[in-house]
Amino acid sequence: MFSVLISSLPLSRWLQASIVIAFGCIAYRGLMFRRKRLPPGPRPAPIIGNILQVPFTSPQETFAEWLHEYGDVVYLKVLRQPMLILNSLEAAQDLLDKRSAIYSDRPNFVLLNDLMGWQNASTHVRYGPRFRKHRRFIQQTFNSQAVASLRPVQEREICYLIQNLIDKPERISQHLQRFAAAMIIKVTYGTDVTSNDDPFVQLAQRAGSLTIQSGTPAATLVDYIPVMKYIPTWAPLAGFKRNAGIVKEAVDSMFNVPYEMVKSQMISGTVFPCMTSRLMEACSPSGVHSLSSEDEADIKGVAGTMYSAAEDTTVCVMSSFVLAMVLHPQVFKKAQAEMDAVVGKDRLPNFEDRSSLPYLECVVKEACRWNVPVPLGIPHRLMDDDIYRDYHIPRGTTVMANIYAILQNCSQPRLFRPERYIEDPKLLDPRDAIFGFGRRRCPGRHFADQSIWLAIASLVSTVDISKAKDSLGNEITPEAAFLNGFVHHPAEFPCSVQPRSEKISMMIDQSLADILKI
C-alpha cells in the first residue's frame, strides 16, 4: 500500500516528501534525545561504569570536587546502577523536598537488608504504608511538642556527664558515649545506664563497630551485583559474607534484647513508661501476648533504629565540638564570657537561656558544619522517571545529597569560625541540612538538637577544655583528623578537661537533686 502510494507520486513531489519525512525523523530523534539527555558527569567505562572513579574512602570530597567540573547535579553509573549526586542545597531541596513523592524510597541495600538483617530498621524501610507507620510511631515521642517532656532526662544525663568528666577527665570519649546512649536508652526502653560498661551500650557499640568494619570493597559491590550474595562462604571475595553473619547476630541482639526486656516488664507490671511500652500498648490494648508479628517487628525496628542512630551521631557532634575547642581556645573563651554574662556561675544553663546566647548558638552551628556527622546522608531512590533542568533522571536512580559539599559553600570552609554566622545572618544553618531532606528527614532531629545544645552549653559553663601536655609539660596540638565511615567521627585525640571552680561539683549535685524530685 505504502509502496503503491510512493510510486504514484511525481519524482519532485517524492523528493519533497522524503526530505520532509527525513527532517521530521531527525527532529523527533532530537526531541527524544533532549528528553533523554542525562545530567553531566564523568565518562563511564564499558560495563563497569564509573566504579573506578568513586573512592571507597571519603567519596564526599571527590563528589564535591566534581561540582566545579560538572555542576551541582552529577550523574554516574556504578556498574549498571545509575547514581545522582546533589552538590547544592538548591538541587537537594528541588528534588528531595519539593518532589518527595517520588524521591522518598530507599535503594535495596543487599548487604544491610538481606545479609545483616536491617530490613526492619526505620532508616531502611522502603517507601509506602510501612514507612508511614514507622514515622507515625516515632513522631508520637519525638515531635517538636513531645520532646519538651523529655527535658528532665536530658538534664539528668548531662549532670552525670559533668560529674564523670570531673572524676575521670582522661576518659572523655567514653563519657560522651555513655551520655548519648543513656539518654536514648531511657527514652526508648525506660532503663537507666549507669556506666559505659552497661550491656545495652555494649550491644549498640558492638553492632555499630562491626557494621563499619564490614564495609570492604567486596561488601560494597554486593549492593550493585546482588548475585554476589549467593557466593559460597568459602569462595574468594566471600569474606564480606562471613562477616555479615557475625554482624547480623550483633544487630539482632541490639534489636531484640532491650525489646524483650520491656516486654517482660510489661507482663510483670514493672515497666517504666517509654516509647517501646507505649507502642506495645497502642498496638495491642488487650496485652503484649496478642501483638502481631508485624507490629512486633515494626516496634523493634523503630526503637532499635533510634537507639543505634541517635547515640552515634550525638557522640560525633560532641566529639567534634571538643576537638574544635582544643584547637581554637579563643572561641571557647569567648563562649564562656557570654555564658558568664548571661547565666552567671551559680547555676547550670537551661533551655530558657538559649535565645540569650547567640554566640554559643553560632558555635553549635559551626560544630555541625565543620565535621558533618553523616556527609552523604542515607541514599534515596527515585521511584519514577523524572525531568530536572531538561535532564532525564531514570527510575531506580540512587540519589545522594552531598551534605558535606552543601556545607562547604562558605568562605574558608575548612576553618572553624563561628563568627561566619554573625557576619552573614543569611548563611545556611547546618541543622537544616545535616538531618536530611524531604519525607526521609530525621524524625529525631528535635531531640538531637536539644540534647547537643544543652550538653555543649553545660560544658562551656562548668569546665575548661584545653590542650593536653606531655611528660615535659609541653602542649600537645592534636590533628584535625577524622575516621572514614558512614558516621564521620573525629580520630582519638588528647585533651585536658578541668572544672572551672571548686563549687562545680556542689552545683551539679544540687541540680541532680532538683531534677530527681520531678
What would your notes on this structure say?
By secondary structure, the chain is an alpha+beta fold. It is 53% helix and 6% strand. It contains 20 helices and 8 strands. A 4-stranded mixed β-sheet has the order 1-2-6-3. The longest helix has 35 residues, at 293-327.
Key descriptive features of the protein:
iron ion binding; four-stranded mixed sheet; alpha+beta; 8 strands; 20 helices; Cyt_P450_CS; disordered N terminus; Cytochrome p450; 518 residues; metal-binding
- Count of spatially separate domains: 1
Biggest sheet record: 4 strands, mixed
> What fraction, in percent, of the residue positions are helical?
40-55%
CATH superfamily membership: Cytochrome P450
Number of helices: 20
Fraction in beta strands: 5-15%
Radius of gyration based on Cα positions: 27 Å
Question: What best-fitting shape do the alpha-carbon axes yield?
Answer: globular
Distance between the termini: 91 Å
Order of helices and strands: HHHEEHHHHHHHHHHHHHEEEEHHHEEH
CATH fold name, please?
Cytochrome p450
Task: Give the overall average pLDDT.
Answer: 87
Strand order of the largest sheet: 1-2-6-3
- CATH class, named Mainly Alpha
- Number of beta strands: 8
Low-confidence stretches: 1-11, 14-20, 25-35
